[in-house]
Amino acid sequence: MSAAEEIHTPRPAHVPADRVVELDMYNPQGIEKGYLEAWTSLQTADLPSMVWTPLNGGHWIATRGELIQDIYCDPDHFSSHVIFIPKAAGEKYAMVPSKMDPPEHRPYREVVDKGLNLRAIREREPAVRAHAIALIEAFADKGHCDFVEEFSGEFPIRVFMMMADLPMEDSPKLRAFAAGMTRPEGNTPTEMADALDRANRSFFDYVSPIIDARMGGDGTDILTLSINSQVNGAPMEREKLLGMVSLLLLAGLDTVTNFLNMTMDYLGRHPDKVRELTENPTEIRRGVEELFRRFPLVAAARMVAHDVERDGVELKQGEMVLLPTALHGLDPRVNADPWEVDFQRKRPAHSTFGNGPHRCAGLHLARLETTVMLEEWLKRIPTFRVVPGTGPTYHSGVVASVDGVRLEW
C-alpha cells in the first residue's frame, strides 16, 4: 500500500457514499476554535448517527449520544480487543484489562479496582487535599498563575505518583510515554503504529523492574496491590501483569490534567458560575458531575466483533467504530441546552468515563481530585479570570490535551 493510500483509505463497497466525512480524529477541522466545538460540528451538520471517514485507516464514527452509549454497553457486538485508532496502532496496544472482553476481563478488572474503589479513594482524601492546598498556596498571593505549569500539570501527577509509590522525578518521562500512546506521532497508520508500539514497550520496560521489586511485598500502594493479586486462583502471567501495571500508569497521568485545564478555562470566562460555586460550596460535589458532562475529552474506539447493522448501515467484522465522548454529553437530543453548565441539572447524561463493562476504574479518583481542587481553590481565590487576550491550545487524540490556561485575580 502506498503512503497516499495509507493516508486516504478507499471507501469500501458496503459504505454508502452519503455516509462519508473527511475527519481526522487527531486534527479535526476547526480545532483551533476549540476541541469540543470541532467535534460537535458533526452534530450541527445534521449528519446521520453513523458516518465513515477514509482517514486514519478508514473507520466509522458514532455521532450521537444514544448510539455511543449503546456501543459502549454492547461488548458482544463491539469488542475492546482493539480500542485505539488507527487500527494498525491499536493492534500494538497491549494493556489489560482495557483490551479484554467479558467474561475474560472481569477478574482482571477486580484486581484494578482494589486500589481505586470508592472506599480506597476516600481514605486518600486527606493526602489529596494536602497536595492541592500546597500547590494553590504557592501562588495564591501572587495574583496570577500559569494554571497548566503551576497546578494541573502537578496536582493529579503528584497524587498518582503518591498512590503508586513512585518518585515524582519519573513523571516527565511517564507523561511522554502516555502522550506517545494517546496522541501518537506519524502521518500514516504504519508510522503511528510504530510510535504507539515504542511508547507501549517503554511502559513495559519501566514497570518490569518495579514488578520484580514489589513481588511478594505487603505495601498498600496501587501497584503493589495489583502485582501481588491472583486471577482465577493463580498469579498473573508476566505479560498481563506488565500490561496491567502499565495501564494504571497510563490512566493516571494524562486525563485529569487536561480535564482540569478545560474546566478552569471555562470558569475563568464565566464569573457567574464561579460565584455560584463560591456562594454555595456544598453544591461543588454535585456540580462536578455536570462539569464532567460538559468537558469530555476521550475518543476511544471499539472493533466490530461480527457483522452487525446500526443506524441503517452494515458494519463488517474487524472494522473500527470511534466513540467520541464529546458527542454524548453535548448531544442536544440527550441533554437539554448542552453547552450550558447547569449545576442544578438532574442526572446529566454522558460517557466521559465510558460506559458498560469498561467504565473507567479511576472515576472515583477523578471526582475526588476535581472536587478537592475546586473547594480549596475557591476558599483562597474566590474570583479569577482568564488573562485577557490569552486562550488555550487544543490537541486532539484518544485523549485531548489543553495547554495555555493563564489565570489572574
TrEMBL record:
Q: State the superkingdom.
A: Bacteria
One Gene Ontology MF term? iron ion binding
Summarize where heme b binds, as residue positions.
Answer: 105, 109, 302
Q: Name one Pfam family in it.
A: p450
**Keywords of this protein's UniProt record, alphabetized?**
Heme, Iron, Metal-binding, Monooxygenase, Oxidoreductase
Please give the family membership noted in the entry: Belongs to the cytochrome P450 family.
- Protein name, entry field: Cytochrome P450
